[in-house]
Amino acid sequence: MTEAEGSWCLMESDPAVFTELIKEFGVKGLQVEELWSLDAEHFERLQPVHGLIFLFKWIGPSVDSSDSEAIVTDDKIFFARQVIRNACATQAIVQILMNLESSELELGETLRDFKEFTKTFDSSMKGLALSNSDTIRNVHNSFSRQQIFEFDNKSAPKDDDVFHFVSYIPIAGRLYELDGLKEGPLDHGQIPEGKDWTDIVTVVLQDRINKYSENEIHFNLLAIVNDRKVECEKKIAALEATGRATPEKILELKQLIEDEESKRHKFRMENVRRKHNYLPLIVEFLKELAQQKQLIPLYEKAKEKCETKKKSKSKSST
Amino acid sequence: PASVDLAAGVSSDFVKRITSCPTTVQKLTPLLPKFGFSEVVDSAKDQESDSKNVVDTLISPAFQHALSSFCSAFPSGQLGPLVEQFQFGKDAIQAAQSGNLEAFLTAIQKEADNKTQEPPVEKPEDMNVD
């Protein structure tokens, strides 16, 4: 049950996890949403989008040799090299939070102190400081699935979860890619006048996705956006203040607020489920199955299923 | 022998069948994740919602994942010390130490069979509701 001192657990890349994670860091006014496609309309719905986290299965160093040319050194950009495994999810979101320019955002004490503390550090030192931050690590680790068995990690298949998280964010009118495995921030160029940064980043992401063969890679895209509930409440207030509030408009916004609340409720439930220690339940479950004389039948059925699965697997691989 | 994943058999139909037994629901309910939301607490007396909570947990990815890890860790024998905390008989503990899942489950079944000869646990007074 105990994690070795200083180690970071693998975390799921799920909007529920990220939203709660940043809340527990003390961040106010933001949430994390999952994007299912790069279509403009999906971005439209979530605007303003502050940053993106792109998650993919890591297949070794980037093949893109032109990277080195676009890497910049800029003290104004918070960039931390990734020095330890498994922290990249938290690292990716922290990189974005540290660079946000929005005035509505409240970083909270933990991250504000951290930003101040690491201000003069180079990127490796920043990465080291991040991995050594007890507060940040503890919050991160509290979101890993409960490890009921200390050796859970060892028994897990070796090839799974070599996922990497990269952040994309607009800073001072330019699009940057922050990848903790690279030397520094990668400059993707100026965001043209009159264009939203998301118009540019989708092109970059599409290019990137095209480079990987389709069936080998899993992608996931998360957006850091304003607190949706607060946004709707503000809209209602603005409509009412200017006398433009129609019953339909208000109803629509109230419905959005309600949806958001029920979604958050679901998120909280998921996170509680994630953090629970299931060992006592498993034991009692097995005992109850025995009471109902269902235990051995379940075992036989599961055994059969696992065998057919194995057979079909070995068939397909030959 | 390769490890058997019990989660493969814990379908929602299976779970619904198992939780149609009130004693099972009653035994499992205290071990569920606690959400601490008022609406859940308020309805805790309600047998129907208890049974729904049990079903929801048992079919949740989180539980299924935990059960899978339990099964995949079992053959290593390292679950022995953990299992000892749960008042199992000698045979079950031995099976856990040697990493034999089938023997472990068989031992649990035997213990249950011996126990059924004891008088059944008294039911809570939920008959006079309404």
TrEMBL record, chain A:
Q: What Gene3D superfamilies has UniProt attached to this entry?
A: Peptidase C12, ubiquitin carboxyl-terminal hydrolase (3.40.532.10)
What role is this protein assigned?
Catalytic component of the polycomb repressive deubiquitinase (PR-DUB) complex, a complex that specifically mediates deubiquitination of histone H2A monoubiquitinated at 'Lys-119' (H2AK118ub1). Mediates bisymmetric organization of the PR-DUB complex and is involved in association with nucleosomes to mediate deubiquitination. Does not deubiquitinate monoubiquitinated histone H2B. Required to maintain the transcriptionally repressive state of homeotic genes throughout development. The PR-DUB complex has weak or no activity toward 'Lys-48'- and 'Lys-63'-linked polyubiquitin chains.
> SUPFAM superfamilies, alphabetically?
Cysteine proteinases
Q: Per its UniProt record, what InterPro entries does this chain match?
A: Papain-like_cys_pep_sf, Peptidase_C12_UCH, Peptidase_C12_UCH_sf, Ubiquitinyl_hydrolase_UCH37, UCH_C
What family, per the record?
Belongs to the peptidase C12 family.
Return one GO MF term: cysteine-type deubiquitinase activity
Name the residues annotated as site: Transition state stabilizer. Q82
* Subunit-structure text: Catalytic component of the polycomb repressive deubiquitinase (PR-DUB) complex, at least composed of caly/calypso, Asx and sba (MBD5/6 homolog). The PR-DUB complex associates with nucleosomes to mediate deubiquitination of histone H2AK118ub1 substrates; the association requires the positively charged C-terminal tail of caly, probably due to direct binding of DNA. Interacts (via ULD domain) with Asx (via DEUBAD domain); the interaction produces a stable heterodimer with a composite binding site for ubiquitin.
Q: Which chain positions lie within coiled-coil regions? A: 222-270
Alphabetically sorted, this entry's keywords are: Coiled coil, Hydrolase, Protease, Thiol protease, Ubl conjugation pathway
Q: What is its EC number?
A: 3.4.19.12
Q: Where is the UCH catalytic domain?
A: 7-226
UniProt-annotated catalytic positions:
C88, H164
The biological processes this protein is annotated with in GO are: protein deubiquitination; ubiquitin-dependent protein catabolic process
An example of a Pfam family matching this protein is: UCH_C
Indicate the enzyme's highest-level EC class: hydrolase
Gene Ontology CC: one annotated term: cytoplasm
Q: Note the site residues: Important for enzyme activity.
A: D179
From the Swiss-Prot or TrEMBL record, give the protein name.
Answer: Ubiquitin carboxyl-terminal hydrolase
Which reaction(s) are listed as its catalytic activity?
Thiol-dependent hydrolysis of ester, thioester, amide, peptide and isopeptide bonds formed by the C-terminal Gly of ubiquitin (a 76-residue protein attached to proteins as an intracellular targeting signal)
